[in-house]
Amino acid sequence: MILQDRETVALAAELPIPxxxxxxxxxxxxxxxxxxxxxxxxxxxxxxxxxxFLLQADDLSFTNFxxxxxxxxxxxxxxxxxxxxxxxxxxxxxxxxxxxLANNHSWDQGDSGIAETLSSFRSIDAIYxxxxxxxxxxxxxxxxxNKNGWTILFVAxxxxxxxxxxxxxxxxxxxxxxxxxxxxxxxxxxxRNEHPCDxxxxxxxxxxxxxxxxxxxxxxxxFDQIAASGVDIIWAHHPHVLQSWxxxxxxxxxxxxxxLFMYSLGNFISGQxxxxxxxxxxGIREYTGDGVLLQVTLSRLKNSTGYSKIEVxxxxxxxxxxxxYGAPVVRLFNERFFSDLSAPxxxxxxxxxxxxxxxxxxxxxxxxxxxxx
Length: 373
Hints:
Helix content is about 25%, strand content about 25%. The chain is an alpha/beta fold. Strands 1, 2, 3, 4, 11, 12, 13 and 14 form an 8-stranded mixed sheet that branches. Helix 5 links the parallel strand 3 (about 100) and strand 4 (about 130). It is globular, with a radius of gyration of 20 Å.
């Protein structure tokens, strides 16, 4: 039986599965970051060993790649990130297909860094990305993805910058004011009208405080407006901690199928919890090491368009500083993970999982099914 949250089950019950249907399987993650401890790893592939089978089993896997890729300059950490091409290739080899490149660190290496980032991603076959531009003043344009008979429209934008907006000419930047937002909503409507698609996905790097687990009413209202403009899936990031997700049948009643809101999926990988505070597992910075892989299945009648049903399966993951590598790796948050730990770490990580459940009670049970070799 597929693990689902209660709201998904309720919505799915209203939309029966036809005998002849086809599906599109997507996986969404949080922020893929690169602090010093991450990019100094000798083998980046180790990061993904425990989740690789999930990322490779779906149709498309999405991540927010929160660092420039500028091979001409040294790799660097906060406040001005930078990695080289092997860091990207390891993520692609692990199974990531679609990358959001619009975030508050997009300009960390200046315009030349943006040019090198675009060149780096373009050098890899069979991946998709959105968020950066070749020229100043260039209009935001959607990326069209064709996969297994499905057409996906994808756009990545950021509302937050670490630098003056005057330098954001090569970034898909959305100023968080009423006039800019109204213009953006109209642009989304035009994208939907001009590019017929089965599903429209917007990646949004939000202007809000980091390390906040609650979703503000203002954020909910803003996402409702985006959905009303024709967007089916809104995938947000920036807080670096896990927030909630929800399905809404009300957001676009005329279109029928529910809209998926992902308010923040936390960090996928980072160095922010490189040294966990064992005595304080409830500290807010401790939340930066936990997240989910949100597996999304869209269904429809064969030879039809759009989708008639959406199912969501959250799979908890955690960053674990593996002593064999001296750096964090992504681990499935399940009983097999706990069996690998010594006593102090078992206590810490069990408390971490309990805390995730306390503010997100719809997480699945701890024994998420895994494939053992």
